[in-house]
Amino acid sequence: MARYRFVATLFLALLLPHGCTGPESSKPLPLKYKAEGSAPQVLALYEAWFGHPEHISVGYSSHDPAVLTNQIHKAKSMGISAFVVDWYGDRETW
């Protein structure tokens, strides 16, 4: 059984790096949507669970208006134009 696992592992280790090297793999996929203007927009991810008691403590709360205001000002100064909210639906009421 150990020999079978070794052979299977060796086979996969040698096969996987070559799995996407066909002639079609180097062609870029067509974009469904393209950026308009001279430069694309820079987006940042907003994680709404920071500060929740059941989540790891990061030292601030994503629900604190002062924290959000500060983060928005910093984002603007770094050229970030919008936030994307990471949301998984109504699982809990916070």
Structure write-up:
The chain is α+β, with helices and mostly antiparallel strands and 94 residues long. It has a domain at 39-94. It has helices at residues 2-15, 65-77, and strands at residues 43-47, 82-86. The protein has a two-stranded parallel ribbon. Strand 1 (43-47), helix 2 (65-77) and strand 2 (82-86) form a beta-alpha-beta unit.
Report the structural category. alpha+beta
E-strand count:
2
Order of helices and strands: HEHE
Low-confidence stretches: none
Distance between the termini: 51 Å
Overall pLDDT score: 76
- Which band does the percent of strand residues land in? 5-15%
What strand line-up does the widest sheet have?
Answer: 1-2
Silhouette: flat
Helix content: 25-40%
Specify the biggest β-sheet: 2 strands, parallel
Number of helices: 2
Return Rg in Å: 23 Å
Highlighted features:
single chain; 94 residues; two-stranded parallel sheet
Quick gist of this model?
The protein has helices at 2-15, 65-77, and strands spanning 43-47, 82-86.
Outline the fold blueprint:
Blueprint: H1 2-15, E1 43-47, H2 65-77, E2 82-86
Parallel strand pairs: 1-2
